[in-house]
Amino acid sequence: MTPDDRDAFALALLLGVAGLTHFAVPGPYDSIVPRRLPGPARAWTYASGVAELAVAGAVACRPTRAVGGLAAAALFVAVFPANVKMAIDWRRRSPLARAIAYSRLPLQAPLVWWSMRVAHAAGRPPSTRSHLGNTTEGS
């Protein structure tokens, strides 16, 4: 297994676990669905769980990894409004709860970067793939 494969599998694992929690414990996700979205919050919770599981599968499989990485980046951007809602809703909670809610906001940037890195690595020929930009040839 290459470093690029490990990187992709770690991202797929994160997405897969997150997707499963949307079904196992949907309540916390329901509470952060922006009110402006039409329909019941639970439907959005389940839809985002399905999306995370589908993207996890795409990232895990080499033939679909490049598209999966791009889809993961888009997904992390798409759920950002829910993280903003959580930060606003939790602003009067305990310091620990606020820290959790507020830390989710800047966390989205490295998740998008990671997803794009996985997509980029998957789009290169195997002989030029590397981890963190270091070439594997001549090493």
What this model shows, in words?
- The protein is mainly alpha-helical.
- Helices cover 71% and strands 0% of the residues.
- It has six helices and no strands.
- It has helices at residues 3-24, 27-30, 41-60, 65-78, 80-89, 95-122.
- Helix 3 packs antiparallel against helix 4 (65-78), helix 4 packs antiparallel against helix 6 (95-122) and helix 5 (80-89) runs antiparallel to helix 6 (95-122).
- The two termini are 17 Å apart.
- The relative contact order is 0.15.
How do the helices and strands line up, and which of them pair or pack?
Blueprint: H1 3-24, H2 27-30, H3 41-60, H4 65-78, H5 80-89, H6 95-122
Helix pairs in contact: 1-3, 1-6, 3-4, 4-6, 5-6
Quick structural gist:
The chain has 139 residues and is an all-alpha fold.
